[in-house]
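Hello again,

I reread your note about wanting to compare the complex against the isolated chains. To keep things tidy I'm splitting this into two emails, and this first one only covers the full assembly. Below are the input lines as submitted, including protein chains and any nucleic acid or small-molecule components. They are followed by the predicted structure of everything together. The single-chain runs will come separately.
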Amino acid sequence: MTVPSLTALLDLLSGELRDAAATYTRRLSDMRGYYRDPEAEARLLADDPLIYTYGESFAPEVEGQLRFGSTIIQPGRVGDEYFMTRGHYHARPEAGEVYLALRGHGMLVLDRRDGRGEALELRPGTVAYTPPGCAHRAVNVGDEPFSFFSVWPANAGHDYASIQRDGFSLRVVERNGRPTVIPARSAP
Ligand code: NI
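Full-complex prediction:
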C-alpha cells in the first residue's frame, strides 16, 4: 500500500518542492488558447517558453487526506497578459485550498460559477484562501519567478474543462508598466 508523504523539503528561496511525488511542466504549447491575444500567442510559440512547473506530494484520493505542492511561474507575458497557470475548479465544489506565497509578486484570481470574480495580490508571506466553489488561477505580475506553496483535499479532483471552455471573468494585463485587472470580455 502506498502511504502519504510525511515530510518533504521545500526550498524557500526557489519555491521548489524537492521531494515531490510528481512534477509537471507547462509550456505555452500546453496551454494554447488560454491567453486573450492569439497573434501574440502564435508569435511566442516559435520559442515555446516555459510558463510554469509544479510538484506535488502523494496522498490517497480519499476523504480527509491532504495533498500539498508548489508552483513556480516564470516572468513574462503573452501580448499584454502576464504568464499564468491554466487554473481550475475542484471537481468537488466543497473543496477549498490554501496558498502561501514564497517568492516574487503574483496575483490569485478567483472566479465563481455565477461569474463573480476577484483578484488578490500575493507577496512573499501572503497566505490566501480559495473558498469552496471558486476557480483559482495564479499569475506572475513581477519580473522574477513567482512561487507559492498550496494545500488541498486529496480527493478535490480537478476540473480544467470548464476553464478551457469559459475562461475566467477577469484577466491580469500590463497597463503603463503596472499589473491591471480587467474584465475578460475587454477588447485586446
Ligand atoms: Ni486547486
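For quick reference: Residues 41 and 174 are 16 Å apart (CA to CA).

B.
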